[in-house]
Amino acid sequence: MSNRLVLTLAGTVLVGAAALLSAPASAQQNPVGQPSPRISVTGEGEVGVAPDMAILNLTVLREGETARAALSANSEAMKQVLAALKEAGVAERDLQTSGLSIQPRFAQPGKERNVEPKIIGYTVSNAVTVRVRKLGDAGAILDKAVSLGVNQGGGIVFLKDDLKPTLTEARKLAVADAVARAKTLAEAADIKLGKILSIEEQSIMPRPMPYGGPMRMAASDAAVPLASGENTYRTQVNVVFEIAP
User: Fold this and answer.
1) Where in the chain is the domain with CATH 3.30.110.170?
2) InterPro entries in the record, alphabetically (predicted)?
3) In the predicted model, is pLDDT for residue 5 greater than 60?
4) Which CATH architecture group holds 53-159?
5) Residue 14: pLDDT band with limits 50, 70, 90
6) pLDDT-derived band of residue 8, with 50, 70 and 90 as boundaries?
7) Which CATH superfamily is domain 33-50+163-244 in?
8) Quick check: pTM over 0.85?
9) Would you give the end-to-end CA distance of the chain in angstroms?
């Protein structure tokens, strides 16, 4: 009985060893759960486009002996500015109050110490953001607004109203750039690219970049000459490729 048991166990060990020797080589090289070899690259796409819209930041600043007097003077001036903007063709939806501030003005401190600061008046500022969709009108609108009471601010940004076609083109260029980079790296490493495993776009919204090329006049006949230039929009994608066996 004991001899038969020993022989049976020995046979089992031999069968197990034979099974290990006959296991496929791929199973020994790529254990279960281990990711396949891969290569990751980042591609960039850049597209330059002329803007077709301007955003103006305009502020009316008024002073008065009291807060009410300063606010009333400011409100009257801002009403005239808004009316002129609408008359110039700016739609109601393109006008938005972006800030209102009421601040006291203090007398200059003298030589005396431990003296309470004295209020001698108030300053009221009212800021409005204006979207000018007819780029050629931006200079004339800015000139008109200043003549009617705008006396602070004046910031201007040129943008593209519909960015979808521009960003679509930038994404295509970014993916093409990633594929080209991956091919270069694979050739240098003497490996073959497999299928694309994932494509991920950067979540940051592309912003217009200054362009140093020739400038286009946005309002050549206006009292305030403006140059809109060209904006460059960039995007990035991360692409992961499988390495072919």
Assistant:
1) 33-50+163-244
2) 26kDa_periplasmic_antigen, SIMPL/DUF541
3) no
4) 2-Layer Sandwich (3.30)
5) very low
6) very low
7) Protein of unknown function (DUF541), domain 1 (3.30.110.170)
8) no
9) 52
CB 64 within 8 A of CB 73: yes
Residue type, 213: G
Please tell me the distance from the alpha carbon of residue 94 to that of residue 87, in angstroms, as a whole number.
Answer: 13
What is the DSSP secondary-structure string of the chain? Answer: -HHHHHHHHHHHHHHHHHHHHTS-HHHHHS-TTPPPPEEEEEEEEEEEE---EEEEEEEEEEEESSHHHHHHHHHHHHHHHHHHHHHTT--GGGEEEEEEEEEEEEPPP-S-SS----EEEEEEEEEEEEEESSGGGHHHHHHHHHHTT--EEEEEEEE-S--HHHHHHHHHHHHHHHHHHHHHHHHHHT-EEEEEEEEEE-SSPP--B---SPPPBS-TTSSS--B---EEEEEEEEEEEEEE-
Would you tell me how many other CB atoms lie within 10 Å of the CB of residue 125? 19
**All CATH 3.30.70.2970 domain ranges in the chain, comma separated:** 53-159
Q: Are strands 119-132 and 192-201 parallel, antiparallel or unpaired?
A: unpaired
